[in-house]
Amino acid sequence: ESFATPYEAIGKELLSQLVDAFYSNVGKHPLLSPIFPDELSETARKQKQFMTQYLGGPSLYTDEHGHPMLRARHLPFPITEDRAEAWLNCMDKAMDEVGLEGDIRSFFFERLTLTAHHMVNTPGSAL
Ligand code: HEM
Fold it and tell me: Cβ(112)–Cβ(6) under 8 Å?
């Protein structure tokens, strides 16, 4: 099968399950939970919008919130290298949990790895 965009290859339903599984992992992670809100449903809603457009789908995030300016939006939070690795580990685990596999998983994870390291704004480690 061929798909016009990575968004279509993954599909809306699996992307939604992935983001929910991811924030469930974030909420339990000792390095991440302290900087996230206790209630993660609004964060997950925005992340579904963002990842939809990041993967080439409709511009849901920008339509509601304007330009993502992701690095700027993360500046209020101390993001160290170990927090970036923790974020990626929560995502890797979520991909296992929802059964996202193959080339599309590798492609998505590699892009997320670059973006996550770009978010680092604080030297040293979180511990
Ligand atoms: C929001 C942490 C990486 C996309 C947030 C928030 C935190 C956070 C604390 C605020 C949550 C809230 O108040 O609702 C981190 C950490 C990262 C990371 C520690 C480690 C590198 C990423 C990456 C992406 C991303 C790689 C995208 C691929 C977003 C989006 C939001 C967000 C779209 C919502 C922004 C908004 O409020 O409109 N992140 N993040 N983050 N993050 Fe990250």
Answer: no
